[in-house]
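[job 0412] stage=fold_complex status=start
inputs:
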Amino acid sequence: MNSISKYQLAAMLLITDIFSLFCTGGSISLVTLGGMLSAAGVQFLMTLSFTQYGGIDTKGQKALLLVYLLFFGGTLFSSLWRTGSAIYIPYEKSLGLWGRLLTAGLIALVCLYSSSTGIRAVSRAAVIAAAAGLLCIVIDFGSAVLNADWGNISRPEAHSYIYEFMRGFALSGGLGSFYVLTGKIRGSRSSAAAMYFGAKAALTAAVLLTALSVAGGIAGITDFPVITAAQLSQPFEAQRIDSVFLVIFVSFAVFAVTVQVMTASYLLKELFPGFRRWRSSTVTALIIGAALLKSGRELILMRAAALAALMLLTVLSTIKNPLPEQADR
Amino acid sequence: MKERGLLPSLDDSIAEIRRISGGSSDVLINRFVTGDIHCALLCCEGMVSASVITELIFEPITGIEKKNSPGELFHYISEELLLSTDRPEVNDYDTLFRLMNSGFAVLLAEGMERGLAFGVQGYASRGVQEPSGEGNIMGAHEGFTETIRVNMSQIRRRLKSPELVMELFTKGSMSCTDMCLCYMKDRVPQELIDKIKSSLGEMDTEAVLTTGYIRPFVENGSFELFDSAGTTERPDVLCSKLIEGRAAIFLDGVPYAVVIPRLFCESFQTLDDYAFKPYYSTFIRWLKYLAFLAAVLLPSFYVAIVMYHPELLNSTLFMLLVEAEKKAPLSIATESLFVLLMYEMVREAGVRLPKPAGGAVSIISGLIIGDAAVNSGLVSTPLLTMTALAVLGGLVVPELDPQITVLRFAFIIAGGTLGLFGISLLACAVLVNICATEDYGFPYTAPLSPFRSSGMGDTAVRSDIKKMQDRGFTVEEYHE
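[job 0412] stage=fold_complex status=done
writing structure:
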């Protein structure tokens, strides 16, 4: 793997997190925002020790990370299928399961090609995709704000703070890639982490507040409030732009999965150096298999628990075996 | 041809030359006696100037007084007569033929195992003319020609710095084509020059007839849609690239220079940008970016939106399109592909046909495609308008025409089969491909990604020359 900049790392991880945010199901409220921001804060604190003294060196750590990456990759595909009812992909509904598999296959194909070009190419592309996506989000959600009812902000919460905290914790599935990729960045790892979590908090707040103000009133009957908010945007009187959201959604899905495939494939190479060919294809097949096992369930608790376990193990391993040479460079 | 030393006997040497050349009619051998020694002057017909050879070689050489040995004769000619500024020595038949076929006259003498060559080139060549492919309003109207020495002189005339280095060498086992590696030694990274030389060292082609023969050797080997090595036919443009620390390769017989490395943003820059006011240049630059996007994506977006996402259209436009498309017998994607294929055929015919027949192509394309196809209902007017706009957009960025042409077709197929979902997937793949394009560690997408704010002054906008003059920019800033 070649080195990348902290901006490129942040772009790749933010794309993954924003895609997860798009796919967030169920009702949202201000408590959701609070839970998600505090989860991000806790995660930042938990990664700090790793960025200072940690490293992914032992086979056990690598194997654990690989399993997590496959699990999270499956979650991304599963989210894609789950949102199929809200996002219009021309053939998907008419073909049923085969339609879903075709969607997954096409995305997997692009991911395989992307991962074959290497981390530098993907990270460069991710920066452009993130910038273009951000612009589209601003336009899309900006026009949604025109129809916003700011009274929705204070609507009563549907879930407890603990649940929202869990949901926020599960949202940062890209942290698995973070542990692998921080070893490849140029410059300070701590500042890279700070930048990523800071940008994530700002984006999450902006998207959730807009979604809340626009779709808060119908949050009880909508499956995906963030997608609904984007679809309700109507900058002109007789024109909708929700199809444009599909472009951002698909692009983010491709890059989110590609990052998981690349990092998992890298770990596979580290674990089995003799396994050279078909690594990315194997990883992609395993990810799709994981998605089929999840069969469209959100499994927030399981995702949050898996990520928490991974982070705790990383923290404990760092405390037990600090690596001074891995500190900020 | 094996490198074989010249034979001392003039008769044997001439016989050997006739044998190697197969008695070719254009090898001229003039035998004469001067200084009481039997000599022969060899040249290739059509490659030398008859008047120059008569005035500068024959007249002084035939009047030489008696010399004691051929060595003394050669020393006198070489050191005292100074017949030509370019006087390389010839020690073998390989060199003899290479020089003779490059417009040199070679003098052989009885008893000598070496010859003297004189540069008396006089072959017919095209003069310096305005470049046909890179139009310019305010800049110079000179372009490169097919003669490598003329091209080198055009650069030297504009860059008088001693830091400008031009290294001549030959490539092609059959063509022995003269090539020149050109760079500013204080600006270009030495590593880049070493790598280019190493890449060119791997070249083992029989002939080097156009820039396409060397580009695969100096470009990244992986599959790239876009060219990471550029070309230019303008000396002024090349000078600006050399000052920015790039290297260039000239090729004898080709009026283009290959520039290494090339960046994506350069396809949208012209020398005119620096002749106009910054606000206007910035406007023109953004116009080109939009034209590029329209050229690639407009027909595919039209197809995808009309076929799968009509909610994106306002009601008036929607009704207008429904009215137009319901008369067309083909599906919108097929119709779009058909119109674009027609255009590509017309364009190709226009390029390849003799000029007098060009008018006929215009009439056929204008009448048959533009009028009859629409009137017959085979093609709808809105689709033809979209296609025309896309084609027009492509003409704004001629450097990227091959990529635009192919991508336009690919995006139409993606949009026609999978709607915006397909366009998004293909866009991601193309974006990754562009970002993967790099040459010798110089990313094609710089300074956009990897982002370099210092490069934005001449990419997103065109800053004032006063601001840019102290920048001391070289392309090494983008190296990864």
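[job 0412] summary: The longest helix of chain B spans residues 401-436.
[job 0412] exit 0
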